[in-house]
Write a structure and sequence with these properties.
The chain is α+β, with helices and mostly antiparallel strands. It has helices at 6-30, 74-103, 114-130, 135-195, 203-217, 298-308, 387-392, 408-431, 461-464, 493-497, 515-525, 538-575, 579-613, and strands at residues 40-46, 50-51, 58-59, 63-70, 222-230, 236-246, 249-253, 256-257, 260-265, 277-282, 316-323, 326-330, 347-351, 354-365, 371-378, 396-399, 445-448, 454-455, 472-475, 489-491, 528-530, 533-534. A hairpin with a 2-residue loop joins strand 6 (236-246) and strand 7. Helix 2 (74-103) packs parallel to helix 6 (298-308) and helix 4 (135-195) packs antiparallel against helix 6 (298-308).
Length: 617
């Protein structure tokens, strides 16, 4: 049977419980403007009933606070992280695509791009047609031609610097991932120290961990798994085991975390890639962290897409021969020597999901430079385990990154392909003439590297003079138009210093003849130069590509930005502090507290009557 003072115990339990509820509400109100704060609520539960012998069976024993819990919804958290990852990806892409689009701008006035420079060059060629022997006019045309080269040099330099920026940002993102992972592992330890065995929720620490995951979700895809810690009997011990995953791979396991390492490499995906680009590895397993995998997302994925994206226009072919240190392929995806974007050495190739590096390559080509087959001579650091099986399986060899996005390598390749085609056609036409000295003119457009090395493409004669059906072999070190890039594109220095070396006619005796000029003029709008179109359409083709990419990134960026706001509002409706709601709770708990006080007051009066007045004579 309950004691005489049982009612007081019930009242005290109510006072204590509503005091806790009021304090919890006050804490919510105090943090109404605190970023990342999660609303808390006190869970009030009836205390265990007391069995009595009376016929009514049992009586209540009051109320108790079983826990103070954060009000979070895992569904909204997950949706927020998924959306934030997409938002981070397109926000990052838009930043770089806007810069690329600005590089290709051409308004003909303050910003002179390809169309302006190209048109000026052929306008000066028209003037030269009327005065072919005038050295001043010749000099003006040659200067315009060099301006075209300078335009491509600057474009190459701009894109190269942009690739370096992407590369540096990749390292910064990896540092952020490591820092956040370490902090989360430390928070896991602190949370378990507080919660294990006590049942008390470490709310402020959990808020800090959730905020870190919000920040991390913009860099990579994140997810987590949290399970109660149990003993061998299956009883919960109060703590939890918290595992964090990035791009589907575990990076935090309780108080332990895995570190990502950025390492520069001399292995290249593309011919014009900068040196020392970073690759990401797991420090513990040395396995590569693939930031562009299907499960990946966030700004880190966008950085790799912009730094390495080749629109899947990388070199591919079927392996027809193989030995321990070489692969020979045919049916190649890039069919002409001038469209190659392969590094000449230290390139990466993949066969049957195994990655190799090569020291050099050799191509069998016909008279037009079309590739019939190609042999890669592998580095000696890794041998082919089973060459016969590779050939029997009709395996595909893939070079480079093979990322289905138009990134910096894609646009660099377009620049290179244009200058190679245009330079070859121009040089061939020019070589048919005689300069003012009666000699065959030197190669007009050349490749001149920063170290002063000159490529005049003399080895191109090895295949250009073949008859139909014949083929020959050229190598990665051959002096062919493969060596010409937008970065080293230049007018022959001798021609620039001596304009009489430029040929305007096939017969130098006829000083007013200009048949070579007429043939060169066709290169502007009559000859197919680039991707089945005329040379003057080059800028339109490139601009259409970058505009589509930029518009797509901008549209998706706005879409995910709006979704973020919507999901954030929904999440805040659950976990955020609403001032009006908390004010109502404060009044509700205050009234309940007053009622509990009234219960104690009434019980006190009853007990006083019972003790002092009952049985008094």
């Amino acid at each position: 049977m309950a004691s005489t003072f049982f009612g007081l115990n019930i009242g005290v339990s109510a006072l204590n419980s509503f005091q806790v509820a009021t304090n919890t509400t006050a804490n919510n109100i105090a943090n109404v403007k605190t970023t990342g704060y999660t609303r808390q609520s006190a869970t009030l539960t009836a205390k265990d009933a007391l069995n009595v012998t009376a016929r009514y069976g049992s009586v209540g024993t009051g109320v108790t606070v079983t826990s103070i819990k954060q009000q979070r919804d895992l569904y909204y958290d997950t949706k927020y992280w998924e959306n934030n990852s997409c938002y981070g990806r397109y926000e990052q892409k838009l930043y770089y695509l806007d810069q690329i689009q600005n590089y290709f701008k051409d308004n003909g006035a303050s910003v002179k791009g390809f169309s302006s420079v190209f048109s000026q060059m052929f306008s000066d060629l028209d003037t030269l047609r009327s005065k072919p022997s005038d050295k001043t006019v010749r000099n003006q045309f040659i200067s315009s031609a060099q301006s075209l080269c300078t335009y491509f040099n600057q474009m190459s330099d701009n894109l190269s610097k942009l690739q370096d920026d992407c590369n540096e940002e990749i390292r910064n993102r990896v540092d952020e991932i490591n820092s956040i992972s370490e902090k989360i592992s430390l928070l896991n330890k602190e949370i378990n120290q507080i919660e294990t065995g006590t049942g008390v929720e470490a709310s402020s620490l959990r808020d800090e961990r959730a905020n870190l995951m919000d920040n991390l979700s913009k860099i990579v895809n994140v997810s987590y798994k949290e399970t109660p810690i149990q003993n061998t009997n299956g009883d919960n011990l109060g703590g939890t085991s918290f595992c964090l995953f990035v791009n589907g791979e575990k990076i935090v396991d309780g108080k332990d975390y895995r570190k990502l390492v950025c390492e520069s490499t001399d292995i290249k995906n593309n011919q014009t890639d900068n040196d020392d680009l970073f690759k990401i590895y797991w420090a513990d397993t040395k396995m590569e962290f693939v930031a562009t995998a299907g499960t990946a997302g966030g700004s880190l994925k966008a950085l790799f897409e912009m730094r390495d994206g080749d629109n899947l226009e990388n070199f591919k072919g079927k392996v027809t021969q193989a030995d321990s240190y070489s692969f020979t392929v045919s049916n190649t995806s890039l069919t002409n020597i001038k469209s190659l974007n392969l590094p000449d050495t230290n390139g990466k190739i993949t066969v049957d999901h195994v990655t190799y590096t090569y020291d050099s390559w050799e191509a069998e080509v016909d008279a037009d430079g079309n590739i019939k087959s190609m042999k890669f001579n592998l580095s000696k650091n890794k041998a082919v385990a089973n060459p016969a099986a590779v050939v029997a399986d009709n395996a595909t060899l893939s070079a480079g990154s093979g990322i289905n996005e138009r990134g910096i390598p894609y646009y660099m390749t377009q620049l290179n392909e244009f200058v190679r085609n245009f330079a070859e056609l121009f040089n061939k036409a020019e070589s048919k003439g005689q300069n003012m000295n009666g000699d065959t003119p030197p190669t007009f457009f050349e490749g001149i590297t920063a170290t002063g090395k000159v490529y005049d493409f003399s080895d191109s004669d090895a295949y250009s003079k073949l008859t139909d059906g014949q083929t020959t072999t050229i190598s990665s070190s051959s002096n062919t138009y493969y060596r010409l890039t937008a970065g080293n594109y230049s007018v022959n220095k001798d021609v620039m210093n001596n304009v009489s070396l430029f040929a305007t006619a096939t017969d130098y005796v006829k000083t007013d003849a200009c048949d070579i000029v007429d043939e060169l003029k066709k290169l502007q709008s009559q000859t197919t130069v680039y991707r089945g179109d005329k040379a003057e359409s080059f800028l339109e083709t490139i601009i259409s590509n970058v505009s589509v990419d930029t518009e797509k990134a901008e549209t998706n960026n706005k879409l995910y930005q709006n979704l973020e706001q919507t999901i954030s509002n929904q999440r805040t409706s659950v976990s955020g502090v609403d001032e009006d709601e908390e004010a109502l709770n404060l009044i509700k708990y205050q009234n309940a507290y007053n009622m509990a006080s009234k219960v104690i007051s009434i019980m006190s009066q009853m007990l006083e009557k019972l003790i002092n007045d009952t049985g008094v004579a």
